Amino acid sequence: MASILITGLYALSQDLATQEALSGIFGSISLATWIFLLVPQLILNYKTGSADGISLAFLTVWLIGDATNLAGAIWADLVPTVIALAIYFCIADFVLITQCLYYNHLNARRSARHASIQSNGSDTENSPLLTRRRSSDTIGLPGSHRRRSSALSGRRDSLSKIVEEQEDEGNGWAKNSLSILGVIVVGAAGWVLAWQSGVWKPSDTDTGVQSSAPLGAEVLGYFSAVCYLGARIPQIHKNYRDKSCEGLALLFFLLSLMGNATYGLGILCHSLERDYLITNTPWLIGSLGTMAEDAVIFVQFRMYAKGNGQGEVGSESTAVEEEA
């Protein structure tokens, strides 16, 4: 499908070089990917009313990387799309961090209130002995009704959870695939419209390559690359410590992987000249280098999804056996 799309776009004009067309297509898809990147995580946090799954250290370091990336891009006088993307992403990072802080604060207050209620009612645990005896005075052996109902409810809950997890997994992959396909279509269509309207114009690779970038811009670029590479480490560690990826949107990391890949390909397709690659090395490291860390998170999604499901069923069955 990608080859057909590229061939069709190239056929629109014989004056446009294939290399420059590929650069424009990949760059536009990357731009669309980054625009929608944080939306899945924002929606998941809103639906669950929690942000416990995502590491604030991950988001903070990522914000620092985006801020220094913006400063370096402006200093190096990169293309306007890169600068606009950096501005947008700083704003999006701030929105996501604000949402996480809000839910963390809200849930912390609820937990403190719940703990206070439990501590205040702990002295009444020994008082309702007569009530407990009356509730257990039923036909049959004492406690038989409670054990039977708890066993049946435990089995029903475990079976319903298994069915829901299987349905959610199948629907989730289908929705993620459609979402990624939609982002690709939007990005490619946006490039066609920008090209036909004259908003996007191919740059001359012979004269458009800067011989060197300002030293300060290079320093900021490399610093942002280090932040991007290090940002995912707290999230990977948190997933490993909790043995869970619950609360993380898989589509968020899938879009991150695709955005980094298309962003790097867009730079490489534009030119392979030495000076151009040296100028864009920090951004190449930051985009392509994080793909390996995204792969680690994908492995954690798969590994901990199986472990959590087995652990929950096992714990429930053990509890039922103990009650019986």
TrEMBL record:
Its main location: membrane. SMART domains: CTNS. Residues 117-153 are annotated as: Disordered. It is found in: Membrane. It is a multi-pass membrane protein. GO terms for cellular component: lytic vacuole membrane. Residues 117-129 have a biased composition (Polar residues). The chain crosses the membrane at residues 23-44, 56-76, 82-103, 178-195, 215-233, 245-263, 283-301. InterPro entries: LAAT-1, PQ-loop_rpt. One of its GO terms (molecular function) is basic amino acid transmembrane transporter activity. Keywords: Membrane, Transmembrane, Transmembrane helix. GO terms for biological process: vacuolar transmembrane transport. It catalyses: L-histidine(out) + L-arginine(in) = L-histidine(in) + L-arginine(out). Coiled coil: none annotated. PANTHER family: SEVEN TRANSMEMBRANE PROTEIN 1, SEVEN TRANSMEMBRANE PROTEIN 1-RELATED. Belongs to the laat-1 family. This is Restriction of telomere capping 2. It comes from Hyphodiscus hymeniophilus.
